[in-house]
Amino acid sequence: MSRGLRHPLVAVLFGVVSTLPWVGSWATGGAAGFAPVTVVLVAGLAVLGASFLLAWGAETAEKDVPRAFALAVLAVLAVAPEYAVDALYAWQAGAGDPQAGNLAVANMTGANRILIGLGWSGIAIFSILRARRSGGDDAGATTSYVELDRGIATEILFLFLATIFAFFVPLGGGIGGVDTLVLVGLYVGYIAVILRGDVAEHDEQVGVPAYLQQLPRGPRVTAVLTLFAYSGFLIFTAVEPFAHGLEELGLALGIPEFFMIQWFAPLASESPELIVTAYLVDKARSTAAFNALISSKLNQWTLLIGTLAVVYSVSRGQYGVLAFDLKQSAEIWLTAAQSLFALAVLVDFRISVPEALAILVLFVTQVVGEFVVVQTVGESATASLLGVETTYSIWLLAGYTVVYALATLGLVVVRRDDFGRLGRLTVRAVRGESLAADGGGAE
Question: What angle do CA 219, 288, 333 make, to 5 degrees?
């Protein structure tokens, strides 16, 4: 009996069963009448089950397609709820809601900063702590740092390009056609590059992926597509109610609505990605976990921003620029500065405990600091500095942007040789050459 329970298909069964309460309530419309706590529990359980199904599908797919492409598909499915929420606000802005454009940008910047501030730092710390407990059975993590695969050079360089461009987005008065062409074009270019890669000898799997990979190609591909389709359906339908349930609980506790939209809703929508990467780390696959997070960041920093103007224009019935206020411009600049700093940390293809803690502490103190400012002096209270008068919140965002910029500048000076190597590796990736000769890299 115990041997039967250890069969990989039993794990799949448990994953599917955990999602059935949500599927039943969604199909019958019963979820609409649930209390917020019930929605959070039922939808949250579905998100958890979907995350494992999605991870198993991505790991199995590595036998037939380049790992980077499998992780890119995983990233698209995992962040689909974020697209849905932002598209909703962009649509409302096109329909005439004056605040919806600000909400779309706030939700987008919050999601991007959470992915780095909590995702990148948390997975790095988790990987290192796991390596210390296990005695180093993870080829990608040591007891002091996480070593990244050199193959991730392509993602890092494309993220650098998107981040540099993001600094100029607010200068155009909003998100418009040029932003769409550049950012979506960058993502299309990235996909074209990774598709040129070969299907490398995949890591030895255990559990569900190992069982599915030994199947003949036809059933294996069918299993992967089924896992992707079902988990994608669950994530798309369950995460938004999960996020709204958390929002209602937060509002009941007196947390400001705008703060909930920027931080709690994106945290819920990012949960599938964070669960998947934590699962990969627990399987001693820290490099694959980081690759997935970086792929998700590139996805959100290009496609997500680029498509907002399209949704806004369709809703408006004609071409338009999704406008936002000065506060959201400051949010974009801060998000770009955080991205630039995090990428400068990764340019040597490793992240240490102090570096991960720096990313985490800067993120947490900024969020907590802004919450304290809003709760104590209010969102509209202003202060004057050097002859410029603006809100306390914007001054706080500007201060952290400067801190990130100075920290990035210091890393650029120290690691200028690593930037050159990054460029060379990307050129080789574009040519379809193997990056293994450059040494390093786990898995």
Answer: 125
Angular region, 174: left φ>0, alpha ψ -120 to 50, beta rest = left
**What are 429's two structure tokens?**
């990736």
d(CA 440, CA 417): 16
Cα(132)–Cα(310) distance, rounded to whole angstroms? 47
Q: What token pair was written down for 360?
A: 């985490």
Structure tokens that stand for 105 in this block: 């940008």
pTM, two decimals, is: 0.80
For 98, the 3-state DSSP assignment is coil
Closest CA to 301 of 179, 404, 397: 179
Using an 8 Å Cβ cutoff, are 80 and 232 in contact?
Answer: yes
Mean pLDDT by groups of 10 residues along the chain of 443 residues: 63 87 87 80 84 80 72 69 80 89 91 92 88 66 78 85 95 93 92 69 64 87 89 82 77 78 79 76 73 84 91 94 93 96 91 94 95 82 74 92 96 84 72 54 44
Closest residue by Cα to residue 45 from 58, 59, 34: 34
User: Distance of CA 213 to CAs 21, 210, 443, Å?
Assistant: 29, 5, 18
Residue found under tokens 């990313």: 359
Cα(296)–Cα(273) distance, integer angstroms: 8
Give the C-alpha separation, 106 to 258, whole Å: 8
Per the CB < 8 A criterion, the answer to whether 30 and 214 are in contact is no
Evaluated on CA atoms 252, 256, 257, 260, the torsion sign reads negative
Residue 15's alpha-carbon distances to 28, 58, 247, 278, in angstroms, are 21, 15, 26, 16
DSSP string, 305-354: HHHHHHHHHHHHTS---B---HHHHHHHHHHHHHHHHHHHHHTTSEEEHH
